[in-house]
Amino acid sequence: MHNLKKISHAPLRTEGWTRRMVLLAGAIVLGASATGVGADEAAVAIQGHAQMIAITVCGTCHGKQGNSTHPKFPRLAGQNAHYLAAQLKAFRAQTRGDPDAVGYMWGMAGELDDTTVDALAGYYAGQKPEASSAGRDAAMVARGREIYEHGIAAEGVPACGSCHGPDAHGLQEFPRLAGQHAQYILKQLASFQSNMRNVAIMHGVAQNLRLPEMQSVAAYLESRP
Amino acid sequence: MPSRTMVESARTFVPPTVLLVALLAIAPEAVAVPSFARQTGMACEACHTVYPELTHFGRVFKANGYTLTNLKQVRGVSGKKEELLALSQTPPLSIMVLISDTQLKGSLPDVANPAAPGLAQNGTAGFPQQVGLFYAGKIAPNFGAFLQLTYSNSSGSISIDNTDLRFADVTVLPDSSPLIYGVSLNNNPTVQDLWNSTPAFGFPYTGSNASVSPLANPAINGTFAQNVAGLSGYVFWDESLYAEVGGYRSAKQGSANALTGAAGPLDGTASNVVQGLAPYWRLAYEHNWDRHSLEAGLYGATFKLLPGAGVPLTGPVNRFNDVAEDLQYQFVGDEHQFSLLATRIHEAMTLDASFAALGAANPKDDLTTWRGSATYYFRRKIGGTVSYFSTTGSTDTGLYQATAPGGPGVVTSANGSPDTRGWTAELNYLPWLNVKLTAQYTWYSKFNGSGSNYDGVGRNASDNNTLYLLLWFAY
After folding, report:
1. Is B58 exposed, middle or buried (0-12, 13-18, 19+ CB in 10 A)?
2. How does pLDDT run across B353-386, given as a tens digit for each residue?
3. Using CA atoms, how far apart are residues B183 and B234, in angstroms rounded to an integer?
4. Cβ neighbours of A206 (radius 10 Å)
5. B positions 239-258 inside 8 Å of A (CB)
6. What is the pLDDT of residues A80-118, one digit of tens each?
7. Which of A4, A65, A102 comes nearest B70 by C-beta?
């Protein structure tokens, strides 16, 4: 393993399993910038580098293709690249403060540069999400679907789908939620409520949600393909 | 480690099974190193359920040679753009301190004056029991170390402790599975292992160095810790299938060539010298799903020992062939952590040297030891472990000797049996993740072959029951 160094600053013969990848990427980036050609090849090399990091470092927790099995670690396969990049930058800047972000990702993202962030986000966005095999309570899923699609007017909770999309695949800064671990979604909602994860719009959405409602929404989302 | 006076001045062969008595000074020790947390920028829980038990991520970190770093690097680059240096700006140093108190149920005999027998003080304050200095982390690209120097109150000096130097790399196979491969240079068989079901980092993670240990112990179970040098190569496919092959040679500490006074070569004044290379092997498979992790594996080693201790290092050897199975299950949740660890080691001894020298009553002996433990923690704050251990083996009045006439007993066996069994239970409280308070109690229902009067001079197995209180911290 190695540090997740900045590709553009990599001294071209670097450590570990990324040596050849970084050599190639660095050479191509330098060559491309000097001649204005080979930009596609540079992008391919950078993506290859990101794939190596994703499989051999991130993959230990998030799964090789981003389909983690441990509910502590979110599924990243198919996640919106825009959202993923924003999260990695928030970890790096130590502005996302939920407990697992602090304990795990502040360190892991600490030395990522923007090029690598974008390449990693692109890698996961391009992976095929696998359906969750977790067991579900049908009544809870149905209730979760109702909340997701229509909100809870009496509690001032808007429909989740209005931002995350009717299929929960998300859009731009709104993350994909379909197939995500229910436990992970629950923890995030709790973190939005407490503002440990400080996102104003989600704090507003989650502040009135009760635990059974959160559990229902999480169960529904986990069930979505 | 066995002191020179205890082992190397012995005129007769001391089998590894008996060396444990001399090894009492080295107690098991919990190891979790804050320098790894500094290097990775990740909390302890990334690599440990509660230290020193490793999570899956911790095992992969170790297999990768302790080199994952998220720190800024001081770099050196050649004109050909080769990376010549990559040093973390913070050196991976840590200090570990153990402060303890030990009470035996039955006081030990005071051997100061055999003519006026009395009892030793009961209660041993270890202040400190141990202070460890670690270099634990990346050294260079693909090269990392877990290196420990330890001051121990039993020796009153600083010596090398568990050490594991690794070169490791990883590649991605065409099917997208990662293949980690590497080499470990270490000084204790199984210290390089990734699971906590094998001896070096198995339960009990900490123990008293002021207690009484049974006579018999398989060779692979720490007998040669810090007195061998081993080199092994390993592969870890898809973070699931692990295979390792290596070999160990004697690398004695505190030993000098009798003729030159230099560090070596070893000659017949040394004792229990490994003949050639002692092969070591390991095969394990791990499956992870949801919050669960399950591992099953096999490991073993074969040591051919030249008795030495006054006998030239030629002629017959004693052969210890250890084959072991291990099993580890972990549930790793946010609130609850639960784990089961188990190992069974079978040792077949062919004692050509000892039998010829009348140091063993049988030309062949066997020994089987197993330990199982269950650990639970709540929020990584409060938890405990219950563990059962058992050793059984063939009776050998030469190997497991009776108390000499007028002798104090304690570390002897009246019937020549190595059989020992009992329980260890401990409670732990961690006010912070790098500070642990432990209360541990060990019960013996059988010790060196018997429950009562096992040494023939009136000591019962339960007299060796041990209460151990520990303050552990590392920073």
Report:
1. buried
2. 999 999 999 999 999 999 999 999 999 999 999 9
3. 6
4. 22
5. 239
6. 999 999 999 999 999 999 999 999 999 999 999 999 999
7. A4
H/E element holding B413? Answer: none
Q: Is the peptide bond before B52 cis (omega within 30 degrees of 0)?
A: yes
Instruction: Tell me: do A102 and A37 sit in the same domain.
Output: yes
Residue A171 within any structural domain of the chain: yes
Residue B225 has pLDDT above 80, yes or no: yes
Bridge partners (DSSP) of residue B350 are B319, B364
Question: Mind listing the pLDDT tens digit for each residue in A151-209?
Answer: 999 989 999 999 999 999 998 899 999 999 999 999 999 999 999 999 999 999 999 99
Please give the tally of structural domains in chain A: 2
Q: Is A2 a member of any domain? A: no
Please list every residue in chain A whose beta carbon sits closer than 8 Å to the beta carbon of residue B65.
Answer: 1
Secondary structure letter of residue B275 according to DSSP: P
Residue B328 to residue B242: CA distance in whole angstroms: 14
Answer whether B315's CB lies under 8 Å from B304's CB.
no
Q: Looking at the structure, tell me whether residues A198 and A88 fall in a common domain.
A: no
Res A6: pLDDT? 37
| Chain B nearest C-alpha distance from A162 (Å) | 31
What is the residue-wise DSSP string for B172-241? E-TTS-EEEEEEEEESSTTTT-SSTTSSTTPSPSS--SSS---S---IIIIITTTSEEEEEEEEEETTTE
Is A8 an interface residue toward B (CB < 8 Å)?
Answer: no
Per CB-CB distance under 8 Å, the chain A contacts of B171 are: 17
Is A1 a domain residue?
Answer: no
pLDDT band for position B90 (cuts 50, 70, 90): confident
| DSSP class per residue in A52-74 | HHIIIIIHHHH-TTS--SSTTS-
Q: Is the domain of A99 the same as that of A43?
A: yes
Question: Which A positions 17-76 lie with beta carbon below 8 A of chain B?
Answer: 17, 23, 26, 51-52, 55-57, 59-61, 64-65, 69-72
User: A19 and A117, same structural domain?
Assistant: yes
Which tens digit of pLDDT belongs to each residue from B146-198? 999 999 999 999 999 999 999 999 999 999 999 999 999 999 999 999 999 99
Last residue in a domain, options A125, A149, A183: A125
Same domain, yes or no: A94 and A144: no
3-state secondary structure (DSSP) of residue B77? strand
In this prediction the ipTM stands at 0.89
Clarify whether residues A164 and A88 are in a common domain.
Answer: no
Distance from CA of B50 to the nearest CA of A (A): 14
Contact A191, A84 (CB under 8 A): no
User: What is the domain range of residue A165?
Assistant: 138-223
Residues A82 and A22 in one domain: yes
Partners of residue A3 in chain B, C-beta under 8 Å: 68-71, 73, 86
CA B215 to each of CA B74, B361, B400, B405, B447: distance values in angstroms, whole numbers, following the listed order? 51, 16, 7, 19, 9
Q: Is A14 near chain B, with CB under 8 Å?
A: yes
Q: Give A171's DSSP letter.
A: B
pLDDT, tens digit (0-9, with 9 covering 90-100), for B239-269: 999 999 999 999 999 999 999 999 999 999 9
- Could you tell me the CATH number of the domain that includes residue A180? 1.10.760.10
Claim to verify: residue A145 and residue A204 sit in the same structural domain: yes
Out of B60, B65, B176, name the one closest to residue A60 (CB). B60
Residue A49 is assigned to a structural domain of this protein: yes
**Alpha carbon B343 to chain centroid, angstroms:** 14
| Final residue before a domain boundary, out of A125, A147, A177 | A125
Residue in B67, B81, B334 closest to A2 by CB? B67
Domains of chain B, first to last = 4-474 (2.40.160.10)
Query: What's the pLDDT band for B12 if we cut at 50, 70, 90?
Result: very low
